[in-house]
Amino acid sequence: MTTVPMQTASKRLDSEALEHELIVDSRSEMDEQISAAVDRLVRVAYQQGRRTGISVSRLGDRKFIVALDENVPFGVTEELDLHSN
Q1: Would you state the pLDDT for residue 67?
Q2: Tens of pLDDT along 16-36?
Q3: What is the pLDDT of residue 81?
Q4: DSSP code per residue over the chain
């Protein structure tokens, strides 16, 4: 898993990682970085011949995990809110 502040995430995220932990500073940054991570994982899955979906888990106000997930059907992106208010 790769964890980085979002200001530098696009430069430092491992393009082959199966999971990315994101820490965002704003709503617009959240949308942008989650979309970028999903796009990156779609490419990784395609290159590796994986037929899994993607999960986007909210762990806190600013913290998310975007991952290839064997429990999510191929072609589906599932959103989970694991943040307890």
Answers
A1: 96
A2: 679 999 999 999 999 999 999
A3: 94
A4: -EEEEHHHHHHHS-TT-SEEEEE-SSHHHHHHHHHHHHHHHHHHHHHHT---EEEEEE-SSSEEEEEEETTS-TT-EEEEE----
Q: Report the sign of the C-alpha dihedral through residues 59, 60, 61, 63, in that order.
A: negative
Entry pTM: 0.78
- Residue 57 φ/ψ, nearest 5 degrees: -110, 130
> Other C-beta atoms within 10 Å of 7: how many?
11
Contact 47, 76 (CB under 8 A): no
**Which strands make up the sheet holding 19-23, listed edge to edge?**
2-5, 19-23, 63-69, 53-58, 77-81
